Amino acid sequence: MQLPCTLDVTRASAQDVLVSSFVQQEDVIAAPERGNPHFAVKTAQLLILLSAFSMGFMQPPVSLLGFIAVPGDFIFLALGALWTGLAISRRTPFIFDRAYYFLGAYLLAMAASAVARDVPLASAPKLLTQLYLVAIPVLVCNLVRDSDMLRHVVRWWLAGTAIVVAVAVGSLTLFAIDPGHPLLGYTRFHFGTLPEGNYPRLRLTFLNANLACNYLTLSLMILLAAGRQRWVSRSHFLLLLGGILVAGASTISPGLGGIALAVGLWMWLLLRSRRPGPARLCLAGGIAGALLFVLAMVVTPIRHPTAPFLIHVPGLDLVLAPSGRLMIWMDAATNFFQNPVLGRGIGTDAVLVRYQDPSGNLQELTDAHNIFLSIAVQCGAIGLFALLALIGHVVWRTVPLRVSNSDAGVFRLAFGLGLLNGLVYQGIGGSFEDARHLWLVFGLLLATTRIERSVAGIAASNFQTPTNS
User: Fold this and answer.
1) What confidence category does residue 1 fall into, taking pLDDT thresholds of 50, 70 and 90?
2) What is the rounded CA–CA span in Å between residue 129 and residue 136?
3) What is the Cα–Cα distance from 109 to 342, expressed in whole angstroms?
4) Which pLDDT band holds residue 468 (cuts at 50, 70, 90)?
5) How far apart are CA 448 and CA 467, in angstroms?
6) Which letter, b or e, does each residue of 181-190 get, where b requires 16 or more Cβ atoms within 10 Å of its Cβ?
7) CB-count burial class (<10 Å; 0-12, 13-18, 19+) for 399
8) Among the listed residues 311, 345, 309, 339, the one whose alpha carbon sits nearest the alpha carbon of residue 327
9) Which of 54, 8, 125, 26 is nearest to 454 (CA)?
10) Helix-helix angle 371-398:324-338, to 10 degrees
11) Percent helix, strand and coil across the chain, each to the nearest 5
12) What is the C-alpha to C-alpha distance for residues 321 and 368, in angstroms, rounded to an integer?
């Protein structure tokens, strides 16, 4: 007679016990899912796919509750309402992840800075946006539960990227034919700190060129992982890879250093065991490209009249001026030390810097153009520590830097590296803390970590240690 299986710790392998213990700590299911998936659950899954697709589009923006809403926001609001109803009615489980502690700490830091502001209600709209952004990874973590769903999300994301790439190619073609065409008014961006000339700088389907480059960097990492796992055909992979590089170049953004770093690091990971020489060369090239763009963010050969000082390069007949970003960073650091604990309050302008661009236009800049300084000025050391803790958790999820054989393992690495690129490296030159696509990818990182460990737990449970009858 075959008896029902019971838990026998004395006969269980050490690996079984370890995996079981870890999964219990990582994923706490508040309510078991009952029966077959309900129609509403299918609708929620469709909405998460539409959300991934919509990350590539920020036009046309709509003013809502004091902040700029984009098309994907309305999808997420519908998704949040639907999923909340499902969770309350116990038709779907609530999956707990320890990353929620870091998200909660980040949100509390935002709330503390709002309360400390002279007029706390003035920060209310901005605080609502932070609550919305923090909810995005929670929804993604709860709805992307297996490799099949992950595959669908990746493909829908890349489908959105393909349209962004098509817009870039179309805009460049149209510029070559008719530079003054009115349609280019939707996709072109101002030159910023670049000198004016007969060349296009594109924002594509985004509100600015730097956000477009940030999104394309994440898309590049996702595409590289999808190509590695053959989730896309070789022809589609090569076509989209070339399109992302062209679209990224059209933004003429400092974030292009992040694209160079992403390609160099990924090639190093793939080649280091088989061809260590070329692997090191790829890594060195990626790092060199990234450093060159950082240097370009700091100084400029154009001696603008708003420069507070000039830099004489020793040994060279070369005089440089601080860039607009360096002037902003200096002002932001000063403002941070004036309110070091809780900051000025979330939603306030981080800086006020007057800068004359190469075209002779006098600009008044209020954004910190740096994610760390932006949070530090608004939320003080408490907010900065919460941000660093969140980034540290992303690092913990990403390491070790090893390309796995499993689908979830490869995408965990790609999502983690993409996030660190978008938040840390590109965050040096841009305030991307409110970028929706970064928060969605954070949720995907949590989901892939859980999927990978779940698969490992199933594999361990299937392994039986031989015993004597």
Assistant:
1) very low
2) 11
3) 8
4) very low
5) 35
6) eeebeebbbe
7) exposed
8) 309
9) 26
10) 90
11) 60, 5, 30
12) 19
Contact 186, 61 (CB under 8 A): no
Residue 189 pLDDT > 80: yes
- When pLDDT is cut at 50, 70 and 90, the band that residue 457 belongs to is low
In this predicted model, what pLDDT tens digit does every residue of 101-119 receive, in sequence order?
999 999 999 999 998 887 7
The residue type at 335? N
Where on the phi/psi map is residue 396: left (φ > 0), alpha (ψ -120 to 50), or beta?
alpha
Q: Say how many C-beta atoms besides its own lie within 10 A of residue 55's C-beta.
A: 24
- pTM across the whole model: 0.90
Taking only the tens place, the pLDDT of each residue in 197-232 is 899 999 999 999 999 999 999 999 999 999 999 999
Element (H, E) at 432: none
Alpha-carbon gap, residue 446 to 434, rounded angstroms: 19
Query: Mean pLDDT in the chain?
Result: 89
Q: How confident is the model at residue 14 (pLDDT cuts 50, 70, 90)?
A: very low
Does 460 have pLDDT greater than 90? no
Residue 410: is its pLDDT beyond 60? yes
User: CA angle 329-129-91, nearest 5°?
Assistant: 140
Query: How far is the C-alpha of 297 from the C-alpha of 399, rounded, in Å?
Result: 29
User: Contact, 230 vs 450, CB < 8 A?
Assistant: no
CA torsion, ordered 115, 104, 148, 233, to nearest 10 deg: 60
- Is 50 exceeded by the pLDDT of residue 330? yes
Report yes or no: 418 and 221 within 8 Å, Cβ to Cβ: yes
In the block, residue with structure tokens 């490992």? 456
* Residues in Cβ contact with 6 at an 8 Å cutoff, skipping those fewer than 6 apart: none
Rounded to 5°, angle at Cα 62 from 58 and 64: 125
Query: By the 8 A CB rule, do 108 and 390 touch?
Result: no
CA atoms within 13 A on the CB side of 278: 7
Helical (H) or strand (E) element with 340: none
